[in-house]
Amino acid sequence: MSLQAISVLSVTVILLGSLEGKGVMQRDVQCCMQYSQGKVRTKDVLEFEMQTEGPDCSIRAIILYTKKAVKCADPRDRKVKRLLRKLIQRQRAKAHRTMWLQPHGNLPVMSEIQ
Question: Can you give the residue ranges of the Chemokine interleukin-8-like domain (predicted)?
Fold first, then answer.
């Protein structure tokens, strides 16, 4: 390969890499196209989000990010509704616990008290 061909190839790779990082080459849409099989335990779910039907996604789903994988669940399923209630309850409890860790108004933080 000539030096000119190598230069053109390396510039092309660099340009494609920079375009891909800005989302021009690939879309950052993660979509469930079908529902996952199997059970998901509440304690394994790190976070979740709702997927609505639209031009990018063909089904409504709950996207569950677990410790090992990403699962797609049917929001109409009775067990999924129960799981979702538990997850929302866990989120509220966590938010309530962390609320008390924040300093309120002009009260000193524990590290400031001598």
Answer: 28-87
Task: Count the neighbouring beta carbons within 10 Å of the beta carbon of residue 84.
Answer: 19
Domains belonging to the chain, first-starting first, are: 31-101 (2.40.50.40)
AA identity, residue 35: Y
Q: Please tell me the pTM assigned to this model.
A: 0.58
* Alpha helix ranges (H) inside the chain: 3-21, 78-99
Question: What is the dihedral sign for C-alpha 35, 37, 41, 44?
Answer: negative
Angle subtended at Cα 58 by Cα 57 and Cα 59, rounded to the nearest 5 degrees: 100
Label the pairing between strands 70-73 and 61-66.
Answer: antiparallel
Residue 17 pLDDT class (50, 70, 90 cuts): very low
